[in-house]
Amino acid sequence: MVKEDTKVLLGFVPIGKFCFSHEDALKQKQTIEQVLKDLNIAYVGLDFVIADGIVRSDDDAEKVIHYFKTLAPEQKPDALFLPHCNFGTETAVGILARALGIPVLLWGSQDEAPLQDGTRLRDSLCGVLASSKVLQNCDVPFTYIPNCFPCDAVFSLRLTEFVHMVAVVRRFKKGMRIGIIGNRLPFFQCTMVNEQELLQKFGITVVPVNLLRVAQAIRVAEAEKTDAYHRELAQLRDKVDFSTMPLVSMVRVLAFRDVLLDLAKTLNLDGLTVENIMELTKEMGVHLVYALAAVTEAGIPAVIESDIHGVISSVLLQSATLDTQPTFFMDITVRHPHNRNGFLLWHNSAPLALKDPACINPSIGEHWTMPGIEPGVCNWKLKDDHVTIARFERGKNGYSLLSFKVNSIPGPYTRNTYVWVESENWETLEQKIVYGPYLHHVACIYDDVTAILQEACKYIPSLIFDPL
Q1: pLDDT (tens digit, 9 = 90+) per residue, 16-65?
Q2: DSSP-based three-state secondary structure for 208
Q3: Which H helix or E strand runs over 236?
Q4: What is the pLDDT of residue 2?
Q5: pTM of the shown model
Q6: Using omega within 30 degrees of 0 as the cis cutoff, is the peptide bond preceding 437 cis?
Q7: Using CA atoms, how far apart are residues 41 and 169, in angstroms rounded to an integer?
Q8: Most buried residue, 162, 174, 398, 404, by most Cβ within 10 Å?
């Protein structure tokens, strides 16, 4: 279910003109409005603002602008939907789009055949073509649904994709807040970021959280909720094996999860990252990655190794699903032993809800790659499906967003959380990462949202989409 605070609100602004059939324009408006209702897309209409709720003049456009701008913040539309219902008043389209400065969806229904006497009720496509040129002249970015009937499946699909895209743009533009717990890992120079530039270009605020404060909060939480955590762990045993872990350590992991969720709420964070290998792990005596997996599953992307750009990548991916699906954060690592285009997505934590149902031995236990480090790493294979991978990064030419789809494939067993996947061309991907600007840490989600992210970049100044 879409959270109320993530629901996108469209400004439903049907476009008509003084010529062609007013009656047919009204029929088209009602048909389109019914599609919005059937798709459960929230919208603001104009029935009480202008005649018939259809813009037919520049004066109508000015009334709509005034109406939208005087709405309460929670009632203001996040985007404009400009369906052309019988023709098109292109100057009004330009006035609306420039004045409101929000994403624009342009479309007109496919026109039926002329009547027997040779006349036509509508010329919607002609109006759309004129309006598109005006939007270009006004230097207004817009999204276009190819000419089709309202009942066509492609219309519902593209309309839904637009709503998801608007959610990504809104999340980016509202001023993202990313928490970082502890300092950047000293031996991970690859995760360096320019906080000042993120704030200036995108309104992204990096919120530092003191490790000592977190450690103290963990101890308070485990002392106050010990009994509740023991009951929770009794149920968790049915899902994952943590028999090699001291019970006190697992209690501490759950306390860390609750501390992170509380911090996210208190500090109004969109996502967070943790210096999870050194000081905090040693201080707590346990590896805390299961807590990050649980926080991510709860809807707050939480990634390891102080990777701020990684969190931003994860937030964008989650937004593309209207926050209905959790992300998981992985490393692109070894190549598949038999598939030339296959490779391993691997790391320490991913939501338990994403575990492969066929995985019979999920566990939390010793760290196999770093002998002597505190225990607590997650081990389970992730489910099979198609996956969208994304990475937000800064390079010499500015900020870009790499995104592409892969499909899971069979592969050998390995430790930690993992899934083997296949790309269309491994060598292209390999060179893309090696030559940069991308890090091999990637945000992932079980969905196909690459086209949504690509369209979103059209509306985010200073962010270039980089397809594979």
Answers
A1: 876 667 878 899 999 999 999 999 999 999 998 998 999 999 999 999 99
A2: strand
A3: helix 226-236
A4: 38
A5: 0.93
A6: yes
A7: 17
A8: 162
